[in-house]
Design a protein that fits this description.
about 110 residues; mainly alpha; single chain; about 85% helix; about 0% strand
């Protein structure tokens, strides 16, 4: 009888050891899987950040181009006004003509004045 209790105890220990090994391998697999998911999410976040940065740069470039176009149009309008006044014999730098040009220039960026 003592021999059979020894074999049941040994069998129980072996079974516990095998179970522990399976649990360890399962936990390792789950950890590896979770790490792969986390890495994929990090890669997606990086791609999204790069895409947003590219969109930002494109918008900035477009806004700069629009600003340059508007500045150029304002400078052209100022030049047309001066030419028109000069063509009509108005002295541009004095009197009401100068005031008219100055009033127009108040709304212009300082670079084109």
């Amino acid at each position: 009888m003592a021999g059979s209790s020894f074999s049941f105890g040994t069998l129980g220990l072996i079974s516990t050891g095998v179970s522990t090994l399976f649990n360890a391998f399962g936990a390792k697999s789950i950890t590896k899987y979770n790490n792969a998911i986390a890495q994929a999410q990090a890669d997606i976040a990086k791609i999204n950040a790069d895409t947003m940065n590219l969109h930002y740069q494109q918008r900035l470039f477009a806004a700069e181009g629009e600003y340059q176009r508007e500045t150029m149009q304002a400078a052209q309008m100022k030049a047309r006004q001066k030419v028109s006044l000069a063509a009509n014999g108005v002295a541009i730098g004095v009197g009401s003509a100068a005031e008219q040009l100055k009033a127009f220039c108040l709304g212009l960026p300082q670079q084109i004045l």
